[in-house]
Amino acid sequence: MLPFLPFLVLLLAGVILMALRFIQLRRALLRARAGEATFRLLAEHGRDAAFLLDATTLELLYISPAAQRLSGYDLPALQSHAARLAADVPARLQRWRDGDASRATLLREVELPHADGHPLALEIHSTIVPAAAGRGVSVVGSVRDVTAEQAQAAEREKEHKRFASMLSHEFRTPLATIDGAVQRLVSTSTDADEATRKRYVKIQTAVDRLLAMIDDYLSPERMAAIGRERAAAGIAPLALLQQAAAGVPASHTVQLQLDEDLPATLRCDVPGMALCLKILLENAVKFSPPGSAITLAGRRVPEGGVELCVRDAGPGLPEAELAHLFDKGFRGIHAAGHPGAGLGLYMARAVVEVHGGTLHGHNLPAGGAVFRIWLPVPVQTRKSLASAEGNRDNSLT
Q1: Side by side, which strands form the sheet with 253-258?
Q2: For residues 264 and 236, is the Cβ–Cβ distance under 8 A?
Q3: CA 20 to 30 Å from 274, out of 100, 190, 344, 395?
Q4: Within 10 A of 170 (CB to CB), how many other CB atoms are there?
Q5: 296, 245 in Cβ contact below 8 A?
Q6: Count of beta carbons in the 10 Å neighbourhood of residue 354
Q7: Contact 75, 85 (CB under 8 A)
Q8: Alpha-carbon distance 134 to 55, whole Å?
Q9: Can you say how many angstroms the Cα of residue 41 is from the centroid of all Cα atoms in its chain?
Q10: pLDDT in tens, 48-77
């Protein structure tokens, strides 16, 4: 018996080791099944449809009930549509196997008719996942209904175009009247002196410039592009504010206050930001007494970015109107007797928001109002700038 004792010990140890491994595998299997059950539970109660697709055969291995609720189709019909929508998967799988990792995850939008006939816009997010133990490759993902979102985006674009057409018409009508009157004056005033003829030319030039600005900023195409694209451009903050200050009439003085650590270049659509500042300065001139000072300030703010401010010495903003300042067509109590259509601040905020910034207006404790533009800037672009004025006190409170 003694010669067999080591053998028996080794055999017993092997059996114990196999039993431990079996227990570990069983626990792993139970965890996997619990995870699968949790996934199915989440998938079956989610609003988006979850799916599992065989990447080779394009067979639906699993699809959550949300797909039937979303599309109105039964499982066989969903299988047919899934195979059609996944027609690009074999080519995508081959590129993935060839090392193109960019094809592992894909997000795309497709159209699918609902069972009742109305169109569905679907956002499909899918990922290629190798199965365990070399059992093939699957595609897992989710399907989301974005029909309502697309309809809202289309309606917003139509509204932008309608608004741009209306605004363009409102500006062009008085300009056409002015242009016609000047042309009549030129043709009938043959005895006018040289100074008068020069004034006529200046008026015609100004009308042409305004019409060109309308084409640049108020065309339906330009308004529809707001928020989607913006040409990369830039200007030094000091130069931007100096150009804006140059347009303030002699009835008011302008004070520039700038931090020394402003960025060398502010990335923005320069004509757009110039238009925004022009609107704010025109309001400051309109609603503050002649001879009073208007302050233009630029500074870095602790939370990041640059803040440009326009401060006036006017009567301030009525508290009841603060929530409506930037509403399209809104005109406050102080606007009575002043020409305008209530579109300036609406346009100014639209320009700022295109740049990812914000525009707010509020009252100052000492009187007057301030409008603050916040724009994001890269933190690495810093350069010292001397203030155009001796006073660099940037406190606007």
Answers
A1: 253-258, 293-300, 306-311, 369-375, 358-363
A2: yes
A3: 395
A4: 13
A5: yes
A6: 19
A7: no
A8: 13
A9: 35
A10: 888 888 888 888 888 888 888 888 888 888
